[in-house]
Each structure stands twice: as C-alpha cells, then as structure tokens.
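Model it.
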Amino acid sequence: MKWLLAIALLAACVPPTGETDPKGAAGIRTEPTPATRGEPFVTDDGWTVTIDALYLRGFLFALSQVPGTGSENIAQEYVWNARERHELFVPAVREGRALVKLDLTPGYPGSIVDNDFVLTAGVPEAVARRFSQSEEGSSPFGASAAAPAVVLVATGVKDGVRVVVDVAFSSSSDTTRSLPVDVVRNDLRLAPFPVAGEELFAYAGDGMRLFQPLADADVAPRDGRVTTAEVSTVKAECVGRGTFPAPDASPETRCSFSLVDLLRMRAPVIVGAPALVVGGRLGSGQAPDANP
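Modeled.
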C-alpha cells in the first residue's frame, strides 16, 4: 500500500510545468538476471544452485548535475524483492542531467512496515520482520547494532544432497557506480540497473562461485538448512581487508573473517558495482574448518 501511495503522490512531488525551478523524478529500473529470478546455475564446485528469495535494502540517490544551480542530492530508502523488476525513483529532482546511485545499506532495528521513510516493494510481512531485527552473528562491521541489507534464501543440490542457505546480513560498503539520467519536468525518467544475485557466491575473491563452504556450515545437528548464525562461525584467514593471505605471511599479520563477513563484502557487487576483490583462503570445492 505504501508503494502504491508513493506512485500516486509522484505528481504531487513534482512542481507543475512553468515554474522557475522545474522538477521531475529520476531513478532506476531494476533488471534481475535469470539466476536472480530463480533460474538454476552451476557453481564452480559443482553445485546446482537456485535463488529462492532475494530481498535488498538500500538508498537510492539522485545528484543534480545542472551547471550553475548548486549541489542537490536527494535520497529515498527502499526495501524490495530483487527477483522482480521494480522502478525505484527519487521525486522532486531538478530538471536536467542527474546521476542516480544505489547503495545497499543496513538499517537500524525497528519496524519498516510503519516507517514513512522506507518504501517497500513486493516484501512479505515475514521478510519485513527480518529487516526490522538486529543482524545475527558477530562482525567487525558492527552488525549487532544494524538490521540486514540482504535477505537470501538459496538451495544447492549436488550428488543427491540438498542444502538450503537462509541468511540475512549487512553490506560492508557502498557501491561506486552512478548512472546518468536526463530529468524532464513532471515526468519519471529511469536508467536500467542490473541485479546479479549469483555474484554473491563469488565471495572467495578469485572469481570462482562456490557453494560448498556454505553447505559445510551446516554443523551438527545437520538439518540441511544453513542459518546466519552458522555461517558466522566459519572462518577464512586473510592478511588485510581486500587482499589474499601471502603463503609466507607471519601469523601476526593475519586476520580472520567469517564466511558471512565475506558475503557482506561481496554484497555491493550484486547491484552493479565493479568487482570487489576480497576473500579468504577458499579454493574451488575447499571449505575452511567450522568453529562451532
């Protein structure tokens, strides 16, 4: 209802043609990849993976680029079903060239259902509750004080084994990609924006998509379902954020990220950001030891 109301009020947010400061609306049209929409794909370690659900939370920014008019940056927060196409927009943007940018961002714990500052699109009540709660699992990014930016449910099948990964986590950094939009008064202009959920599985940092480490996070008692709390216990060594551990690195130079931390670092890439070269010592088909 809140989403429909926002669309209905779009005209009210845009001053009528003829004003001295004419405005329109600018945004993105999300374009989920076939894998994001639920088409099965095979990872490099041989798992057939299906994304059953993918919901994202982020801020859409519109930065006016009209010469001589001063800086103007308007933002709107969204939570939406990333498996579907959606039009996400910011109203009351100055007519002329603008840059739109989407950043996946964690929120503060608290209901998003009655929050007038957060617009939702295709989000069931049960998922809205997950975005309203503090994130599970420890994290160097302060996740205990944040609500998730990503809710992912994916099923992997290999050699007769079926594992469901059901996790919610934040995003470690914003994106760097901005798209130009030519804003027209009293109109909505959108830029196509790809969403590639399958890129979440390339968290090892070497470009290979892996599911085995996630499957191995299903610790005793194994029930075939992997939670955020479980993937937060799987550790991957590193020597610094954004780098791989050197083979001869001394123990004191190493740090330890959990598997959910690698997912957090990877999250910005799925909404069109340049490849994020971050990862731990995870080779194809190799999983780190779990630390229950």
